[in-house]
């Protein structure tokens, strides 16, 4: 029987997941399709998942924590992050994964000479990236505008600072996980401070994609190697696809199809 997958979110109409998953499904000749589901009420998540007959799903903002709490079992790093972006149904049970975290790591693991990382922001994306990088042996520090969101990081043993209590140090890689620069021209941190950090760093990544953000512009001006968030978007989708189809297709074949789909945008 044909398998059916979806992405849950609100909003969800902007998501390119249906395009890239369906493109790969077609290229690899699989009997399946991938839809999108606008979820109005998070309490309905599990009911809709089960009653719509989905075999699996991706979950985007703001339902990754709800999805985590709806799973019967959660795998790997998702247990630490406490958020899932990928679920499969197996023997009528929902099994949750987080592919954002390994998707990010996959894109930086070959970058040489990175030991210490500064993550700007303390939201959901910062959580996924911080846990996976610490697990892989990097020294991770979090810097956020306000104190409130730092609590879960401090509780989990991260070096985590708000703007008011941060002291400059050397970091090899600076990652912007804030939404500063997404719909405006703001930097995620005071320019003077950011320039000082860039002077001592070699790499800068902005998880925002499809846009040359003020953060990346400033990093380039300071001669850093830079990267936007497209690689993370692509890798999390490839890893989810592997899970959906039980690792029957190679990472490289899936990635190739999805990259082609993205080039059509
Ligand atoms: P959250 O809403 O969970 O967190 C946002 C964080 O950004 C908070 O720490 C907030 O600080 C900080 N922030 C917001 N505006 C500013 C500002 N003007 N200056 C400084 N800090 C600011 O967001 P997410 O983690 O869900 O998403 C963050 C970004 O990551 C988005 O731009 C999103 O598009 C991108 N993203 C990219 C993905 C990819 O695959 N490439 C995947 C997922 C997300 P405070 O606590 O002080 O409010």
Describe this structure in a few short sentences.
By secondary structure, this protein is of the alpha/beta class. Helix content is 38%, strand content 21%.
Describe this structure in words.
It is a single chain. With 265 residues, the chain is of the alpha/beta class. It folds into two domains: 130 residues, Rossmann fold; 126 residues, NAD(P)-binding Rossmann-like Domain (Rossmann fold, 3-Layer(aba) Sandwich). Helices cover 38% and strands 21% of the residues. The strands form two sheets. The chain has a six-stranded mixed sheet with strand order 2-1-3-5-6-4, sandwiched between helices. The protein has a six-stranded parallel sheet with strand order 9-8-7-10-11-12, sandwiched between helices. Helix 1 crosses helix 11. 42% of the residues are buried. The structure holds NADPH dihydro-nicotinamide-adenine-dinucleotide phosphate. The site of NADPH dihydro-nicotinamide-adenine-dinucleotide phosphate has 26 residues, from helix 6 and helix 10.
Q: What labels describe this entry?
A:
265 residues, Rossmann fold, alpha/beta
Helix/strand layout:
Blueprint: E1 3-9, H1 17-27, E2 32-38, H2 45-51, E3 56-59, H3 64-70, E4 73-74, H4 78-81, E5 86-90, E6 93-97, H5 100-108, E7 116-120, H6 124-135, E8 139-144, H7 151-155, E9 159-162, E10 173-176, H8 191-200, E11 203-206, H9 214-221, E12 225-227, H10 230-244, H11 251-263
Parallel strand pairs: 1-2, 1-3, 4-6, 7-8, 7-10, 8-9, 10-11, 11-12
Antiparallel strand pairs: 3-5, 5-6
Helix pairs in contact: 1-11, 5-6, 5-10, 10-11
NADPH dihydro-nicotinamide-adenine-dinucleotide phosphate is lined by residues 61, 100, 121-126, 144-146, 149, 177-180, 182, 186, 188, 207-209, 229, 232-233, 236.
